[in-house]
Amino acid sequence: MTDDVVVVDTMGGLGDLLLALPLIEALGRSHPEARLTVVTTAPWHVLLERDPRIHAVVPVPGRDGAAVTGAVRPVLERLRPDLAVTTNRQHGLPELLAAHARRAVTDLWRRPPADEPVDLRMLRLLVEEGVVDPALATLPPKVVLGEDEVAAGRRVLDSLGARAPVLVMPDSGMAVKHWPLASWADVVRGLAARGRTPVVVSEVAEQRRVLAEAAAAAAPALPIRGVAGLAAAAAGLGGAAAGGDTGPVRLAAAAGLPVVGLFGPTLAARYGYRGAAVNLQGLPGCPVRRPTAITEQECWWEARCPLTADHAPACMADIAPAGVLAALLAAA
């Protein structure tokens, strides 16, 4: 009998936790008698707070090694779990888990193929390790929401007069993933002309201003679970969402909303959205892209593309507004 299962997901980003949701659910369902504890980075830990399969959520207050081990070590020392799994091989976590758990699975990034989605790869490895039921090997990411949270999202959409709402999520966090704002404006105008209500979900003032001028409504600032509730409410109204390779779009998909993903420096076959999703790949034959080593791409950290005179990401500019608009109209 498995009494305690600990999952350590401390990669740090919102998208990282969302990619881990299927394995968290699969472990909970494969060991229903166990107490499931998840250690993950704040503030994203709140996305797990209503999941009935999770016994406890431990937030990590930072991304550095001291913060991570400072949060993980006491949990392992207290529980001495039967099974511990981590998505992060840094900060000495593999050794820490191996020293405190009866069974530790610590390398879910080994030998990744370029054409297998990251979250499915992790599930498949857990099945191979014998700790997840093979019937759960294709679980999609899913955020557990309450009816009150979905109702709150519906009130926001009602206040905007949204009909067949399309959540427009232009802020991709990293500049190398940004789609040109002028292209977003073209899509917003196209949606409005066809009776859809584009709703901008972004805290970047310039994005909100430009897209408002193009006829988009703007969602108010919302906590992260509020964004999930908004997405779930939009799904109930026959809506959709669009954005780059970024956490908010991944969250919308996990809340059940059809999404259109815009992928440039990352490969859609590996990082694309699952479920009701259309993933558009810019510049498929890019010679700079390294699908299984994205942080080693020369464009990654400074968004300086070697293929363009102005160094703007050629892969993102390669995605046509007409294609994005068509995919959204088909989804919404």
From TrEMBL:
Pfam families: Glyco_transf_9. Keywords: Glycosyltransferase, Transferase. SUPFAM superfamilies: UDP-Glycosyltransferase/glycogen phosphorylase. InterPro entries: Glyco_trans_9 (IPR002201), LPS_LOS_Heptosyltrfase (IPR051199). This is Glycosyltransferase family 9 protein. The lineage of its organism: Bacteria, Bacillati, Actinomycetota, Actinomycetes, Micrococcales.
